[in-house]
User: Which sequence fits this backbone?
């Protein structure tokens, strides 16, 4: 059955599709699941602990996750530009096509040349594709490894005083679903997504602190010192090397420009960082 649906994000399209969502319990993936369901898609929510068991590192889980899917949203962990990502994601995307998947989206990162080979592997897999290059997620400050520091009153991070156009993970998810449901409109496109405002990490943390009604300091460090601290926490040396290289490129100021991607795809402005901060502060996210 084919239905035409308009969902909360204001997008229309043909939505008789079953979509495999990888990273489905993550910051973006969880919201892709919600947005896709709101758009009327049948969703297979996949991760190592998800409803559909899927592990990038265990190829025996791949075919079972893909079976029955017409489309797939790919989010590669630990990072879209990590060593080996292009080979693994490319192999997965080709298997997806073999098993009948016709539409692929890839969650990629803005200003990350390390991710370009992964993007290219998806473009060459044989499906209609959309690459979604996102800026830094606002939700990095409310979910995941940086939350402990924020709650503890100090964010130590190697971002100096660079400007970053923080994007709300809900907007990234809405764009992914608009691409999946938008027919050919966004096929063969690499979309550049930012929030509506440039902020330094110091300013972002200050906005959080003001809304949370407490002191939270931003402590910039070098990428090398940050890497040394990660190594002390037991992150494997190869991963630390990659992260140091990633921070030294991605956080060198190259992302200090806004883009029109969200407006073009969704026909509205991206959510402002202040909206995210207000909602999370009232939910108590940054309480001690
Ligand atoms: N953070 C940013 O600002 C940013 C910006 C642009 C692009 N990106 C890209 O976005 C992706 C991360 O997305 P996110 O921040 O939404 O994720 P996240 O919040 O870090 O969550 C990770 C998700 O991936 C799953 N996962 C972890 N390891 C896995 C594995 N080996 N096999 C299968 N699933 C696995 C996790 O669930 P289980 O634990 O249940 O497996 C979870 O659903 C990365 O590719 C990153 O490069 C990030």
Assistant:
């Amino acid at each position: 059955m084919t239905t035409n649906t308009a969902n909360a994000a204001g997008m229309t399209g043909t939505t008789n599709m079953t979509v495999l969502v990888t990273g489905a319990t993550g910051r973006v993936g969880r919201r892709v699941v919600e947005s896709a369901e709101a758009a009327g898609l049948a969703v297979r929510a996949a991760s190592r602990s998800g409803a559909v068991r899927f592990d990038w590192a265990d190829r025996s889980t791949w075919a079972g996750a893909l079976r029955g899917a017409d489309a797939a949203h790919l989010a590669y962990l630990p990072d879209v530009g990590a060593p080996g990502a292009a080979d693994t994601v490319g192999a997965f995307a080709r298997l997806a096509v073999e098993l009948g998947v016709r539409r692929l989206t890839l969650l990629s990162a803005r200003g990350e040349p390390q991710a370009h080979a992964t993007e290219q592997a998806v473009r060459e897999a044989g499906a209609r594709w959309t690459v979604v290059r996102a800026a830094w997620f606002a939700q990095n400050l409310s979910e995941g490894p940086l939350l402990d520091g924020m709650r503890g009153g100090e964010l130590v991070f190697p971002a100096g005083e660079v400007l970053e156009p923080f994007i709300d993970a809900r907007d990234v998810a809405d764009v992914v679903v608009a691409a999946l449901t938008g027919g050919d409109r966004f096929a063969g496109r690499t979309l550049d997504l930012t929030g509506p405002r440039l902020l330094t990490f110091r300013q972002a943390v200050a906005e959080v602190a003001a809304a949370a009604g407490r002191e939270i300091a931003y402590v910039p460090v070098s990428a090398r010192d940050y890497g040394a601290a990660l190594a002390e926490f037991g992150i494997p040396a190869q991963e630390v090397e990659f992260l140091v290289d990633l921070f030294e490129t991605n956080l060198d100021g190259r992302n200090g420009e806004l883009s029109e991607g969200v407006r073009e795809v969704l026909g509205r402005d991206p959510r402002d960082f202040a909206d995210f901060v207000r909602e999370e502060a009232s939910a108590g996210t940054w309480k001690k």
Residues 23-29, 47-50, 54-57, 75-77, 79-80, 107, 109, 134, 136-137, 140, 144 surround NAP (CB under 6 Å). Residues 1-13 have pLDDT under 50 and may be disordered. The chain is about 40% helix and 20% strand. The first strand starts at residue 4 and ends at 6.
